[in-house]
Specification:
This protein is an alpha/beta fold. It has two domains: about 5-85; about 95-245, 2-Layer Sandwich (Heat Shock Protein 90). Helices cover about 45% and strands about 20% of the residues. The protein contains five helices and eight strands; from the N terminus they run H-H-E-H-E-E-H-E-E-H-E-E-E. A five-stranded mixed β-sheet has the order 2-4-5-7-6, covered by helices on one side. A hairpin with a 3-residue loop joins strand 4 and strand 5 (about 165-175).
Length: about 240
């Protein structure tokens, strides 16, 4: 072993230590700050029904549902961070594809009213292998399709296709597309995790989560322009305990 090899190993060890510290810091933020703040928001929202008329009840119900969903996500995110740091294996089970995909489609429509986000066909009623972080997969892909779109009229088309053992979710846009030499690197494959190039941590998170779920993600060219991100997820074993309703 040469001096150069030793130096490289030491540099790699230090990078791993830095990553571990970053993950631990993120874990603390997720477990304490975000979760506690959302619990306070939910608590105050639960006191509002006597002060809300029928016209505002739907909005209040949405606030309560979203608050509960974020609290659930913080727990799953904690498991995700710990799985990255090697502390534990994420808890997976049968997860409702339609609920997660419809929720994130509705959210991106509300957040980006100037973009046209449409569903091509019906979402199959099927459970896939995953957990609550499945929402993060769809959220990041949809946000990426809108935020990085250089078209005057951004368009995003979502399609879910059920096969014998898997389900493919396609998120197509009319943006600038992804060059061939970036189609692998954009997910951080072969790169150093959180420092990977491309669209930031979002696509790295998508890739990492789909791998944890036993699936995969890839990007293809759209016609006539743009990109198509394809997530392929294994169907859940019918005998499995449902992880998320």
């Amino acid at each position: 072993m040469t001096i150069a090899d030793v130096t490289e190993q030491e540099a790699y060890r230090r990078r791993l230590e830095e990553k571990t510290e970053q993950l631990e810091a993120l874990n603390r933020v997720v477990r304490h700050d975000i979760r506690n703040d959302m619990a306070v928001i939910r608590g105050w929202a639960e006191t509002l029904p006597p002060h809300v008329d029928d016209s505002g009840q739907e909005a209040l119900d949405r606030v309560l549902r979203k608050s509960e969903h974020v609290i659930e996500l913080t727990e799953t995110a904690r498991e995700f961070v710990e799985s990255l740091s090697g502390e534990q294996t994420p808890d997976l089970g049968a997860t409702d594809l339609r609920r997660h995909l419809e929720t994130e489609l509705e959210a991106v429509r509300e957040t980006h009213p100037d973009a046209e986000c449409r569903l091509d066909g019906d979402i199959p009623t099927v459970s896939v292998q995953g957990n609550e972080m499945l929402s993060s997969v769809f959220r990041n892909l949809l946000e990426n399709a809108v935020r990085h779109n250089d078209s005057d009229s951004p368009e995003v088309t979502v399609e879910a296709i059920e096969d014998a053992d898997t389900v493919r979710v396609r998120v197509a846009d009319n943006g600038p597309g992804v060059p061939d030499d970036e189609k692998e690197r954009i997910f951080g494959k072969g790169e150093k995790g959180l420092d990977s190039p491309g669209s930031g941590i979002g696509l790295y998170l998508v890739h990492t989560l789909t791998q944890q779920f036993g699936g995969d993600v890839r990007v293809e060219d759209n016609d006539p322009r743009g990109a198509v991100f394809v997530v392929e997820l294994p169907k859940a074993d019918p005998a499995e305990t449902t992880a998320t309703a």
